[in-house]
Amino acid sequence: MQILGLYNYWIFIVLMMCGFYVVMSRGNLVKKLVGLNIFQTSVFILYISMGKIIGGTAPIIVNQPDVVYSNPIPHVLILTAIVVGIATTSLGLALVVRINEAYGTIEEDEIHEQDEEESL
Amino acid sequence: MIDHLPALQVVIPLIAAPLSALFRPGRAVWGLAMAASGLSLLIAILLLRQVLEQGVISYPMGNWPAPWGIEYRVDAANAFMLLIVSMIGTVVIAFARTVVEQRIRLPEHKQPWFYTAYLLCLTGLLGMIVTGDAFNVFVFLEISSLSSYVLISLGRDRRALTAAYQYLIMGTIGATFILIGIGLLYVMTGTLNMMDLAARIPAVSGTRTIRAAFAFLTVGVSLKLALFPLHLWLPNAYAYAPSPVTAFLAATATKVAIYVLLRFFFTIFGAEFSFNVMELDRILLPLALIGIFSASVVAIFQTNVKRMLAYSSVAQIGYMILGVSLVSVTGLTSTLSHLFNHALMKGTLFMALGCISFRIGAASLDRMAGVGRVMPWTMGAFVIGGLSLIGAPLTAGFVSKWYLILGALERGWWPVAALVLLTSLLAVIYLWRVVEVAYFKPAPERPVREAPLALLIPTWTLALANLYFGMETSLNAGVARRAAETLLGVAP
Amino acid sequence: MKRYSIPRLITKLLLPLILLFALYVQFHGDYGPGGGFQAGVIFGAGFILYALIYGLDYAQQILPAWLLRIGISLGVLIYAGVGVAGLLLGGNYLDYGVLDAHHPAHGQHLGILLVELGVGITVSSVMVTIFYAFAGRGR
User: Fold this and answer.
1) ipTM for the complex shown
2) Full-prediction pTM beyond 0.90?
């Protein structure tokens, strides 16, 4: 049962692979970013899982003895990574907008074709 | 104030970045950026002297002591790296003003943002080097990466946009891998401080989690440093970025990633675990050799000179990784010394190319015909940089090649030493193509003038540094050796 | 102007509450859950809602782009400035304890309050700026 008990880590792995696959297989620049987002989000689950302590409450000090708190540090760390994810996504989307203005398309193969024609 | 140098190293460019966003376009904002990077160069020099005299400097951020708070830790290795990055940062910002004013895809009122992005990139790179906290490395890595995506996308060619996008995707995957690796390390040890990690990992080093963390970190950092099969983002990004950005990133960004790799391999995991248990050298050595060889061959067939030099960068990264895979003081000395020398030579070459494309609009071989006669100073710097890249004696490049070959011979790897010499000949071939076109083809019919002094002075500063450090090797060989000994744990 | 009157009305009702909640999260952040980042995002989201319903032009009359530009820089400068203040008062960078010479705990309180304020200002300005940049494109 230990394998099932670690289900949050399995979710992390499945999500990570899904995201990774989308990034690699899709030619649409926006879909690639969606995949990248899923990929990054999966790591959030990894970090949040590792902060959980069985029986632990939210790490806010309550004046009672013998209270077990969950570890807040992974949450703080992942908050930083979430901010990074937002910045990456918005920058990526901004680049896609500019690419669309410059090329008139956001399909990778069509952009590639236009570049090939230009260099000939 | 002298005690606070490690913090100020990062804080000064960090404060200058938002300040420069408030400025009007013009010289004042450039002056601010110049002052900030000049100050960080000064701090880096002081730090290096202090470290060489007194040993490791530890600085607790916010006065929270080391394993709990974030510690900034400066030893010989990262003091040396700080010097490289801040030096290139200062020279390139001097070069950047003219190019930013005239040759960048930004409306005039947004030009101060260029300096903001540049200073943030500098902040990130310096932070990655100076910090002693594994998670902090990730944060600074993202600061520098995000701003470098912005800087690359400012190139005038529309392909700069797709290059920046491609780099964004690859770079984010790399950074996320690093994040996963650091997370797994934290699961097993409960700490993020590098020295604390190093102390606690041996107890759990047999577990699969630590091995997985090692793998994630290796792949993630290799993506950022463009190790051979993971280098696909690099040629386009360098080729289409504005020339000061290319010079800056080529000379610093991948170098800092290599430093991070060294830090993880040698300080955190330890050479014993990385190379005897995980046997990483068996992977790094062939990848480095294939990378050097294939990238040099591809460079020969490029017609865009900027792209040619970008492929040459991939090859040079191969030399540095080759030095790592020797796992000896000499090998590591060659890596660290090549970090320094390569920053000098690629900085010179890309800035000289920047001068050329500033005058003739592009850096393609067919348009560069006869440029050597009308822009003698620019091409002179280019030739010096090229000689250094090949590794000709009396230039900086010779020093690191020398140590690399010595290191290979020490291990008894004759074929490797021979390959290093052979691939240097490949560098002669691709650089000769540029020199031939520039000097022996008829001069262009359009009137072309020598590049303005504002561009020539920084270019020649670095070109002369190539010659100076080819003869005076106490810094790029002596200090590099001490840094290598620090990393390997031979010296205190 | 007469169209979509229900969303307009609801926005008018909700907006003060959203902004107030943002301020609550902001200033509650030093002792309880909350903080500058969350507050900044809530504030930005509230303002983006206003811009979505009433249009970009109205929104930019209230929060013009130049103000946001100052906000972005100001937040980071507050953050870094608190750190430098710690340096000047004889502590380490970001050492809040020295901000109040007699009660280090008060100094800690003040320091984190200011730092979170800087974070909040920058985050909300950045959020709205990102929205403006995308919404204003192609007009």
Assistant:
1) 0.94
2) yes
